[in-house]
Amino acid sequence: QVQLVESGGGLVQAGGSLRLSCVVSGLTFSTYHMGWFRQAPGKEREFVAGRSRSGGSTYYSDSVKGRFTISRDNVKTTLYLQMNSLKPEDTAVYYCAATKSTTWSDADYWGQGTQVTVSS
Predict the structure, then answer these.
(1) DSSP letter (8 states) at residue 90
(2) pLDDT per residue over 30-51, tens digit each?
(3) What backbone phi and psi angles, to 5 degrees, belong to 117?
(4) Could you tell me the end-to-end alpha-carbon distance of the chain, in angstroms, rounded to an integer?
């Protein structure tokens, strides 16, 4: 059974930081590209950041570039998202995803999500 379990969300003031983690089990972690998506209330889910299966390539949406950093540990089968300089518009449910494609339009497996709320 494939499981992606996110943690690390919470309430933070604007300008603050959070680190999300996603522990993955039930699949061969090193063969999947891993990413973070988010969905704000009333909006469609959007891609945030991605890391290739080898870890050699990273992808970011323009809205988070320079503020967020995605990393992965293929030994611990864990994906991370370091979020700095948070803004109220970063408020959303953040989802971890595993995919065989780097188009970042969809994913093969999803986590249950973790809420991030940024207050102004």
Answers:
(1) G
(2) 999 999 999 999 999 999 999 9
(3) -125, 125
(4) 40
